[in-house]
Inverse folding.
């Protein structure tokens, strides 16, 4: 790309001046200007850069050592691959660094689509390549997929997105990069339909790692409802709103994700009950719900009966709570589960006369008994207090 | 009547007033009542948190008992105690019937625990007294309130114990019973238990301990004896027949004069009595809290 260059008079004056200023030995003739080693002569010397920069921060930014380059993804490129027209010193006014996109066209195009290339807030500056990748110490893609480079990159994201770091206990912490879910370059706001983390895309995005889970969730009641919403073309924001069909993050959360056994356990009654309010109310009236609320881990919670990914309505033969599967489902805990046993109604509603008449009338009868007994004896006691008080008042008056 | 002897101000209303002490409850009565107290408190304290799992106090209380599973075990142990004292009492009753010469007196009359028409009359008289339309009624050996409390235990053990057994062994009973029986059993067990604990800790406590003329404690069931004046006030009809100094009872051999409780017995009775009252009142507070805020 750049042929061998001969040093002209002005370049040599500059080099000699530099040597005089910083008491450096004169550069070896082998370090040809325009070669990477030649650039490092000046750009590896902070003192020189400081003399020729308006301020120290600028000088520091111009400081590029050979170590920087050798450990970067660009170790095999020369300085001139990206910085065109800087061969002579002082550098020509026409010298320019090329756009990263000249080589990384796909990434640049994706970046332009995303929120970093085209900020949606008025007046916001785009976040350019160097702000994430740094100017020279760019990590290779392979290193970003594992290890410390990924942690560094995540830290870079969190540097701006201060509240978005994964908290301790999150199962993804130190396991995946931010870009795994949010995409590296085409990063979008969650309320954009095409965002990788939008409700409409989550099953695909999460499913790229959690394949089995995504496959099961695709066809179940939650997946069907989500699909139906997408078919009728509801806007993404409506998918995020109340009454929306659940996506992955609706149940699992986002940053600070819960797991069943993990340090941040998923509280199913809260998560499922967020939408299934009536089911939660009736569950709370049952022994299952009461023991669950008091912290029992042995007692059945939502998913023990209904499953997790792959939940179907009770009238679907694939459902764990379909009448044909109840003996087996209840049998997970109740060893002698049998046809008569599973006639138990785990979500009986004592206010629903139509569907649960026995529970309804038992509850009414018991309430009447309680109200009756406490009314009669409450009044009996109250009158007793009144009588004794009146008597003692009269006695003290009589005594006085 | 104007002279207030120190005994009149005793904390324990059974020790207030003049007259010699007479035996009211024998050792068997007191031991059984003690077992009832212990098992009833264990059942209530491990059961109420389930009934009111929504209340703020329920989870800490269950943790105090070692978690849901341990609390469940304690609940079942207390249930076995309950069935135990209930069975023992039936056996004691059988023995009492066999040994009593005048068997009729056990089932009818002023010394019987069996509810009878005079209890309705007493109830009406009590109401008339409240309203200032008559004198305070004089009760026989057991007032209608005491009879109600006594038979409430039978009713409770049958209803709560029966539904509790169903819920304890659902798989076993499902050989004969459909599963929805447990839905009904849950409602009945929970609300009947709420009735029982609520009744004991408010109405029973009021009848026996908290009403102004007995406040704050009646320890007769702990040390077994009461002053003659106490008996004249609470069981006037019986008191007429109670023995006076130097003469035997005219109605029952068991009605004998008793030595006054020793200071140690008095202290022990007060400590146990107040502890039980405190726990019971806290339970009522918890129930009211849960009913108001859940």
């Amino acid at each position: 790309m750049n042929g061998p260059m001969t040093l002209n008079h002005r370049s040599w004056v500059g080099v000699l001046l530099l040597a005089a200023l910083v008491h450096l030995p004169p550069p070896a003739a082998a370090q040809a200007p325009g070669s990477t080693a030649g650039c490092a002569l000046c750009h590896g010397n902070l003192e020189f850069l400081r003399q020729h920069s308006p301020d120290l921060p600028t000088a520091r930014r111009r400081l590029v050592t050979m170590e920087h380059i050798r450990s970067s993804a660009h170790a095999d490129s020369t300085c001139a691959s990206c910085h065109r027209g800087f061969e002579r010193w002082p550098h020509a006014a026409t010298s320019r660094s090329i756009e990263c996109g000249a080589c990384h066209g796909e990434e640049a195009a994706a970046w332009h689509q995303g929120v970093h290339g085209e900020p949606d807030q008025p007046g916001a500056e785009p976040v350019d390549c160097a702000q994430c990748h740094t100017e020279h110490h760019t990590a290779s893609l392979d290193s970003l997929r594992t290890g410390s480079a990924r942690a560094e990159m995540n830290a870079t994201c969190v540097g701006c997105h201060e509240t978005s770091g994964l908290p301790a206990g999150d199962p993804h912490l130190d396991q995946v990069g931010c870009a795994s879910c949010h995409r590296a370059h085409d990063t979008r706001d969650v309320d954009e339909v095409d965002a990788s983390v939008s409700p409409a895309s989550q099953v695909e995005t999460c499913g790229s790692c959690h394949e089995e889970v995504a496959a099961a969730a695709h066809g179940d009641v939650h997946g069907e409802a989500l699909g139906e919403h997408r078919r009728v073309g509801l806007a993404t924001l409506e998918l995020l709103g109340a009454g929306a069909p659940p996506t992955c993050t609706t149940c699992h959360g986002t940053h600070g994700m819960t797991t069943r056994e993990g340090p941040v356990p998923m509280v199913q009654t809260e998560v499922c009950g967020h939408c299934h309010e009536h089911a939660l109310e009736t569950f709370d009236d049952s022994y299952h719900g009461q023991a669950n609320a008091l912290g029992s881990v042995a007692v059945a919670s939502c998913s023990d009966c209904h499953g997790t990914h792959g939940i179907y309505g009770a009238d679907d033969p694939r459902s764990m709570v379909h009448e044909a599967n109840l003996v087996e489902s209840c049998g997970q805990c109740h060893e002698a589960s049998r046809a008569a046993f599973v006639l138990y109604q785990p979500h009986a509603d004592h206010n629903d006369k139509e569907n649960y008449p026995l529970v309804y009338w038992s509850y009414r009868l018991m309430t009447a008994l309680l109200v009756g007994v406490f009314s009669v004896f409450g009044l009996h006691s109250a009158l007793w207090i009144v009588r004794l008080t009146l008597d003692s008042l009269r006695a003290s008056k009589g005594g006085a | 009547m104007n002279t207030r002897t120190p005994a009149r101000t005793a904390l324990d209303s059974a020790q207030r007033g003049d007259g010699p002490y007479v035996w009211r409850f024998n050792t068997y009565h007191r031991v059984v009542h003690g077992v009832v107290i212990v098992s009833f408190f264990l059942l209530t304290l491990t059961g109420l948190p389930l009934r009111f799992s929504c209340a703020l106090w329920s989870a800490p209380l269950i943790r105090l008992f070692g978690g849901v599973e341990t609390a469940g075990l304690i609940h079942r142990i207390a249930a076995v105690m309950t069935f135990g004292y209930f069975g023992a009492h039936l056996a004691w009753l059988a023995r009492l019937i066999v040994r009593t010469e005048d068997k009729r007196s056990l089932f009818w009359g002023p010394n019987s625990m069996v509810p009878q028409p005079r209890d309705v009359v007493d109830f009406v008289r009590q109401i008339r007294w409240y309203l200032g339309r008559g004198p305070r009624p004089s009760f026989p050996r057991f007032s209608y309130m005491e009879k109600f409390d006594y038979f409430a235990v039978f009713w409770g053990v049958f209803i709560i114990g029966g539904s509790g057994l169903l819920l304890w062994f659902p798989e076993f009973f499902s050989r004969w019973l459909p599963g929805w029986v447990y839905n009904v059993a849950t409602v009945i067990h929970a609300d009947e238990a709420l009735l029982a604990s609520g009744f004991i800790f408010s109405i029973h406590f009021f009848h026996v301990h908290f009403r102004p003329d007995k406040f704050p404690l009646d320890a007769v069931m702990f040390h077994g004896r009461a002053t003659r004046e106490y008996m004249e006030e609470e069981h006037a009809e019986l008191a007429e027949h109670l023995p006076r100094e130097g003469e035997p009872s005219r109605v029952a051999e068991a009605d004998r004069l008793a030595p006054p409780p020793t200071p140690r017995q008095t202290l022990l009775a007060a400590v146990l009595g107040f502890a039980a009252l405190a726990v019971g009142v806290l339970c009522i507070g918890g129930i009211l809290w849960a009913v108001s805020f859940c």
Summary: Residues 1-6 of chain B have pLDDT under 50 and may be disordered. Residues 125 and 131 of chain B are 10 Å apart (CA to CA). The beta strands of chain B are 21-23, 225-227, 257-258. Chain B touches chain A through 49 residues (CB under 8 Å).
